[in-house]
């Protein structure tokens, strides 16, 4: 009875309480949320007790992992410390989770679901128009994360330090979050990757992560957050300013015409030897058929060499793909570097760099597909090269400096570009410039100034045509 009174008291307290208390309120890490089945439906009381006990243990382990990761990063949330903090043995930990990342992922998924449920409920309670519901939902989000900063760090920062499954879980949460915003939806009812709502959600995630890193209260940024969240409603205006000409009649990505594009010509001019021809052949085939269907025999034939000659230069198809990626990446980053050289403030560098990036990619659809999509089919090494390329771009546009937020916005921009490329819309990449500018600058300049920069970039792009 005493425990129930304490819980009832905590649940009735205002949301702005010290962190140490709030992490343990029923808002998050409620054992009831961790039940794998309804104890009332169990075949025996013993089975029901087991379900309740394991749910409580899971909740405690997830809470401990979240708290430890918020304090010292994921590396600090060791299995030994989490188990000790939760009051369970390491054997119990391994019985419930096969890894630290598995525990982190469950903590994330439970907290993410609770957060969005609260946000959606607050929006529904407001009873206003779409703008009013959006503001009510975002206000609830900021209040909830301000009151539970450890959960905020889990959702916005620490989950990315986990494995691929953790990052996939964050993407699913981001898609549902984007669903709260005005957006174009796909067949599954969720926002399309690269849509204005998806970009706005990614931008909000980056902006809030930056404020968490600075220990700044999130609710102080409500005006900017609402402005960013409302961005999808204004996208049509911004995009319209950039669309002044009809697309070229020539089909983008044509095997016959793409060979004459600048990226491929540059590769052919600078690499006349056999290795160079093989690399060009990989760009051409992987950029049209895809990496998996670009067979070594076809690459050798396109490069006018024998298979033994191919193996004299590369140990296999993966190494050849990585070499092709490096060649195209260097060409693109070289163009971006030339464009941003001697530019002014960081905001200007970002706009100029993004323009140079989309222009370079739009010029060669096959090279664009290789560097945005196909390189990631090479497994871990391909992912690492892809991440390194994003870091290099962020450093170029940031004047040699970068941070985690810059990388997160770069990832959001890269996902949007890759989505367009995969749909065969490489030639229209330049139309994305306003959205990319907004996503990149909003965490630093705020919603209003980022909107102005996006509109200006769209207008300048239209005049340049």
The Rg value, from CA coordinates, equals 25 Å
Helix content: 55-70%
- What's the order of the H and E elements? HHHHHHHHHHHHHHHHHHHHHHHH
Number of strands: 0
In terms of DSSP E residues, the strand content is under 5%
> SS-based structural class?
mainly alpha
Q: What form results from the Cα inertia axes?
A: globular
| Overall average pLDDT | 80
The biggest beta sheet reads: none
Discrete helix count: 24
Low-pLDDT stretches are: 1-25, 236-271
**In whole angstroms, how far apart are the ends?**
74 Å
Descriptive notes:
- With 465 residues, the protein is mainly alpha-helical.
- Helices cover 69% and strands 0% of the residues.
- The chain is built from 24 helices and no strands.
- It has helices at residues 2-12, 19-22, 45-72, 79-86, 90-96, 100-126, 130-147, 149-156, 164-178, 196-213, 222-229, 231-242, 255-258, 262-270, 274-286, 296-303, 307-313, 317-340, 346-363, 365-372, 380-397, 404-422, 433-445, 447-464.
- Helix 15 packs across helix 16 and helix 18 (317-340) crosses helix 19.
- The longest helix is centred in the first third of the chain and has 28 residues, at 45-72.
């Amino acid at each position: 009875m005493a425990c129930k009174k304490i819980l009832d008291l905590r649940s009735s307290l205002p949301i702005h309480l010290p962190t140490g208390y709030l992490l343990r309120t029923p808002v998050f890490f409620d054992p009831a949320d961790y039940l794998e089945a309804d104890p009332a439906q169990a075949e025996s009381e013993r089975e029901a007790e087991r379900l309740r006990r394991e749910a409580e243990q899971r909740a405690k382990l997830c809470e401990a992992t979240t708290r430890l990761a918020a304090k010292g990063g994921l590396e600090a949330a060791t299995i030994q410390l989490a188990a000790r903090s939760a009051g369970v043995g390491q054997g119990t930990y391994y019985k419930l989770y096969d890894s630290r990342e598995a525990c982190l992922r469950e903590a994330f998924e439970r907290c993410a679901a609770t957060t969005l449920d609260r946000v959606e409920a607050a929006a529904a309670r407001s009873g206003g128009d779409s703008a009013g519901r959006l503001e009510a939902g975002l206000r609830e989000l900021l209040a909830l994360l301000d009151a539970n900063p450890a959960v905020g760090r889990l959702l916005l920062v620490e989950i990315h330090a986990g494995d691929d499954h953790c990052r996939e879980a964050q993407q699913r949460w981001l898609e549902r979050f984007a669903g709260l915003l005005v957006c174009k939806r796909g067949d599954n009812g969720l926002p399309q990757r690269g849509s204005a709502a998806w970009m706005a959600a990614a931008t909000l995630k980056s902006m809030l992560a930056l404020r968490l890193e600075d220990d700044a209260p999130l609710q102080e940024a409500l005006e900017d957050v609402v402005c960013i969240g409302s961005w999808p409603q204004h996208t049509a205006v911004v995009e319209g300013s950039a669309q002044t000409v009809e697309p070229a009649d020539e089909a983008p990505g044509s095997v016959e015409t793409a060979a004459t594009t600048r990226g491929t010509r540059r590769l052919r001019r600078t690499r006349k030897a056999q290795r160079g021809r093989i690399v060009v052949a990989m760009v051409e085939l992987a950029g049209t058929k895809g990496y998996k269907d670009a067979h070594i025999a076809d690459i050798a034939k396109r490069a006018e060499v024998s298979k033994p000659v191919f193996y004299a230069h590369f140990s296999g198809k993966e190494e050849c793909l990585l070499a092709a990626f490096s060649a195209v990446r260097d060409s693109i980053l070289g163009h971006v570097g030339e464009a941003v050289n001697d530019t002014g403030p960081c905001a200007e560098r970002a706009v100029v760099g993004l323009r140079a990036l989309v222009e370079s990619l739009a010029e060669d659809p096959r090279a664009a597909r290789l560097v945005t999509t196909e390189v990631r089919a090479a497994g871990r090494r391909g992912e690492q090269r892809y991440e390194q390329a994003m870091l290099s771009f962020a450093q170029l546009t940031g004047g040699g400096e970068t941070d985690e937020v810059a990388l997160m916005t770069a990832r959001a921009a890269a996902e949007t570009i890759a989505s367009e490329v995969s749909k065969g819309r490489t030639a229209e990449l330049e139309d994305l410039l306003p959205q990319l500018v907004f996503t990149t600058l909003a965490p630093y300049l705020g919603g209003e100034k980022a909107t102005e920069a996006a509109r200006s970039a769209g207008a300048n792009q239209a005049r340049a045509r």
